[in-house]
From TrEMBL:
Record-level GO cellular component terms: membrane
Keyword Transmembrane helix: yes
Composition bias type Pro residues, residue spans: 226-235
Protein's recorded name: UPK3B protein
Keyword Membrane: yes
Lineage: Eukaryota, Metazoa, Chordata, Craniata, Vertebrata
Alphabetically ordered keywords of this record: Membrane, Transmembrane, Transmembrane helix
Transmembrane segments: 173-197
Region (Disordered): 222-244
PANTHER family documented for this protein: UROPLAKIN III, UROPLAKIN-3B
Gene for this chain: Upk3b_1
InterPro entries according to UniProt: Uroplakin-3
């Protein structure tokens, strides 16, 4: 019996998408760059591209399946330490395909449904790290594969025991500074109110003084000279003095 030919090793290395994405790496998923133009010239219309996911320390022991029936499933990850997912037509990775630039690994939360056996893209159970590679498979088995990625480490979820139930107490220095700032604020507010009060009081006093000065100011009429003495009675003016 003739042994199957080993798949062609392509120089492409998978990696996390370099584009700015929300949640590029989470506690259960990561966004992988979609390879384009990598399988052109090697793939037929009936071929499919798979993504192999393995724990970083188990990637060397991974063996490519010879048919679709031998593809390791997501449910085998805890025991086999690897699985294959994201089965996609090879045409979706061609240079002319308008496909999205990233692939979300671990984004199918329905993989845990009981009785589901199709290859699915379930959430990753631990931070890893993980390694991934793309595998081109035809009717006769694997045809080409990329290199394994560098280890990809997911985010770690915060443990409930590390979350403080109450806010931590502030340091004594912070308390002192806060007290000083509060005192300065109170003094400044008092000074502003006092200045405003003095200004208002001064305006009121000035208004009252102006009114009193007007009411108490004496009014002088024009100067009237004193009355002149009345002339002597008739008959006395023509006689010499002492004979009237």
């Amino acid at each position: 019996l003739s042994l199957p030919f080993p798949p062609a090793l392509l120089p492409y290395v998978p990696h996390v998408s370099p584009t700015a994405l929300l949640g590029k790496v989470t506690a259960t998923t990561f966004a992988l760059e979609r390879p384009r133009c990598v399988f052109d010239g090697l793939a037929d219309a009936s071929d499919a591209v798979w993504l192999a996911v393995a724990f970083a320390n188990a990637s060397a022991a991974f063996r490519n399946p010879q048919s679709r029936a031998d593809v390791p499933r997501y449910q085998q990850l805890p025991t086999a330490h690897s699985y294959m997912t994201l089965e996609t037509a090879a045409a979706e990775y061609s240079c002319s395909s308008p496909s999205p630039p990233a692939l979300r690994v671990g984004g199918d939360t329905a993989c845990g449904e009981q009785g589901r056996q199709d290859p699915c893209n379930g959430p990753l159970p631990s931070p890893g790290p993980y390694r991934v590679k793309f595998l081109l498979m035809g009717c006769g088995g694997p045809k080409a594969e990329t290199r394994w990625s560098d280890p990809i480490l997911l985010r770690r979820a915060a443990s409930p025991s590390t979350i403080a139930p109450v806010p931590a107490r502030r340091g004594s220095a912070v308390v002192v500074i806060a007290a000083i700032l509060a005192s300065l604020g109170a003094v400044l507010a008092t000074a502003v109110l006092a200045a405003l009060g003095a200004k208002v009081w001064g305006c009121l006093c000035h208004r009252d003084l102006g009114t009193d000065a007007f009411t108490r100011r004496s009014y002088r009429t024009h100067h009237i000279p004193p009355a002149l003495p009345e002339p002597p009675p008739p008959g006395c003016g023509c006689r010499p003095p002492g004979r009237c």
